[in-house]
Amino acid sequence: MSFFVAQNIIKNYANHRALDDVSIEIPEGSIYGLLGPNGAGKTSLIRIINQITGPDSGELFFKGRKLEPADMNRIGYLPEERGLYKKMKVGEQAVYLARLKGVSRHDAIQQLKAWFEKFGIEAWWERKVEELSKGMAQKVQFITTVLHEPEMLIFDEPFSGFDPINVELLKKEILELRKKGTTIIFSTHNMSSVEEICSHIALINKSQKIIEGPINQIRNKYANNTYKLTCRYNSEFHPEAVVGEEFEVLSQQVQDGQHEIILQRLVPCPTNTLLGRLLDKTDIIAYQKIIPGMNDIFIKLVKEGNFSVND
Amino acid sequence: MNKTLIIIGREFSTRVRKKSFLVLTLVVPILLVGFYAFLMWMLLKDDSQERQIAVINQSEIAQPFERINNNTFTYADTVITEFSAPGFLKAHDYYAVITIPSDVMERPDVSIFSFSQVPMELKNEIAAQLRKKIEDLKRAAIIDESQVPDLEEKLNATQTPVLVRTLKISDTGEAKESSSEIASIIGLVSGMIIYFFIFMYASQVMKGVIEEKTNRIIEVLVSSVKPFQFLLGKIIGVAAVGLLQFMIWVVFGAFLIFLMQAFSPIDMEALRAAGSMSGDLQNIAGGGNLSSEQLEIIQKVAQTIDPIFILTFLGAFLFYFIGGYLLYASLFAAIGAAVDNETDSQQFLTPLSIILVVGLYIGFAAMKSPESPLVFWSSLIPFTSPIVMLVRIPFGVPGWEIITSMALLVAFFIFFTWLSGKIYRVGILMYGKKVTWKELYKWLKY
Fold it and tell me: Interface pTM (ipTM) of the complex?
């Protein structure tokens, strides 16, 4: 079931169209990566999902019914540009933000204490935000984002400004939240973290959605029939002569006495046929299909510009 | 609505707990009262300097001067001119020397020579004593000559202090005593309080909005509450701070005045000072000490302000106090949302400040001519009405004018808050862009 649906969203600003008929479907319990270059319209879409601004046209559905203002309390949002009141004390501020999300003062204090303990930052409660380092403040902000136990969380570039240790801590927390059933929207430029934690993605470019779906499906789709063969053989062996006319050798290199050969399959041909041709000439170590990384797919799609895929 | 309350709570409590609030709230009244007391003391303190003043008396008046504070007079028998005066003063170590010519009765022209500037008060007192002596002598001579029995008593009886009361009459012929001086002072002071309140607290709203925008916390906040709801909470929260501060000032001020009256004799003097501020009282008091008769007059003036007037005036004051603030606060908030930092706010703030200052000046003008067309129109137009109307009210304003002015203020407040809300909604999420008036206009259509 789709947890959150945005249908045919159009958003115009004075001089340009920020979102042009964008539809996305976010499955329940997924970590949904919202990708796209700067200025593509991600932030506009996130703000519409958060009900910070309204779309010019299009509809939004939350758990199968229309999105309502009261749903604000069920969504948690960590914006890319983060900030807290500098002069306010950490604890007091966190309680305030939690209360604005509909948590009672009493519950807020209890849960905050638990979170502060978990992150080992109990000593910060009475300190002013301006006394904290940037990374410390980000931790506090992360806690205030998830404190009201939202059913859906929206993270915009959550890892920027954190050191690697805290990035790991945060990833762990995000995966933990997913395990508890929280649906997570995750907007980032960091493709390796997308591959690591996202289950679904959508790519937005130039105000339009270019592609959407489960991440594995998308990566497989963009696998362009290239294979990597790792093997050992004597120097008289010429792969071009052996692989047959169905395959073309793109490159080969020797590393630690092992040969790595990149093959492009030109026409359909069973893998076993190829391996049969190679078996008596070489010592095969590995043969695998090359699945492109999200980074390659991202660059390829964005460069292709308005190229649109609908399926 | 519950969320608005939470916002009001934060805006209120963070501001009230600030040191600057405490300082401003407690120190300002102390400073004001202290300044007032100092002024009084300066004006009324006795001249304690000890001075020896020589008098060269060539006239028939015996002993023209008596001791004035610590100034003592010594009579000498010599002739002094401008040229010999310095030598004389040095030789005898006198502070000053007064020469009274022999024909002083006909030509009352007296010179005081001194190396220093003779204080005004001393000079006036010398003149007053001499005048009294000359007048008494002349009077005694006339009484002697005329041979009319009891002439002295009869002449004394001709002295008549005149009290002019201004009576304002209504259409029904009902006459009310009124005091235009006191009325206009009350009106103007209230107008000025409103002016300062608007400036102080509306710009606090603006600062708050800019702070939230530059902090980027606003994006989190508006994902929890609607921007308009948030803005409303902020404006009300700050207003509550202002009202609290004002209330403390009133109570504190009343307490201090009470203290002063209880422990210091200054109150009589203060009344005299108050009398000299409004012209006619000074004439009655004649510069001398207050008699019970004169006290009665002052009390009468105080009574001219009847309780019904005080209640209406207080009501109007509160209405314009809050209404004026709300109108300007929403506009200031829109400005705060449109800019990235306080320095950029100037271009939008200037027109508003000019309107406010013009309002204050029209308020001054209204004191002199409460019926002029400029004053009339600016007491109806909401941007200036909170100040100008308050100055006008003590002079008597027809009910329909007050109602129109108030209704317009409410209408403008609703309209401009709606307008500001639109600008606010767009502005808080716009970063790093220098905004022009044209752009603000576009935002209205988003």
Answer: 0.81
Report the residue of A100, A101, A140, A157 to disrupt the B interface, i.e. the one with the largest count of B CBs within 10 Å. A100
* CA B316 – CA A21 distance, rounded (Å): 54
Two structure tokens written together for A283? 């010592």
User: Comparing C-alpha atoms, which of B203, B196, B213 is closest to residue B238?
Assistant: B203
**Residue B225's closest chain A neighbor by CA?**
A100
**Mean pLDDT, residues B129-147 taken together:** 87
For residues A68 and A167, membership in a common domain is answered with yes
Q: What angle do CA B100, B106, B110 make, to 5 degrees?
A: 25
In chain B, where are the structural domains located?
51-152, 178-445
Total domains present in chain A: 2
pLDDT for position A143: 92
Give per-residue pLDDT as tens, A50-103: 998 888 899 999 998 999 888 889 999 998 888 899 889 999 999 999 999 999
Pick B51-152's CATH classification: 3.40.190.10, 3.40.50.720, 2.40.50.140, 3.20.20.70. 3.40.190.10
Q: Check B429 against A47: CB less than 8 A apart.
A: yes
Residues A195 and A54 in one domain: yes
Distance from A230 to chain B by nearest Cα, in Å?
52
Residue A253, domain CATH: 3.30.70
pLDDT of residue B278: 44
Q: Which of A232, A301, A236, A240 is nearest to A260 (CA)?
A: A232
User: Which residue among A214, A236, A255 closes a domain?
Assistant: A214
Tell me whether A275 touches chain B (CB under 8 Å).
no
A103 to chain B, any CB pair closer than 8 A? The answer is no
Pick B215's closest partner by Cβ from A83, A97, A144: A83
Cβ–Cβ of B223/A81 closer than 8 Å?
Answer: no
In a domain, A110, yes or no: yes
pTM of model > 0.90: no
pLDDT of res. B267: 47
Question: What DSSP string runs through B182-239?
Answer: HHHHHHHHHHHHHHHHHHHHHHHHHHHHHHHHHHTHHHHHTTTS-HHHHHHHHHHHHH
**Domain interval for residue A231:** 224-289
- Residues A116 and A182 placed together within one structural domain of the fold: yes
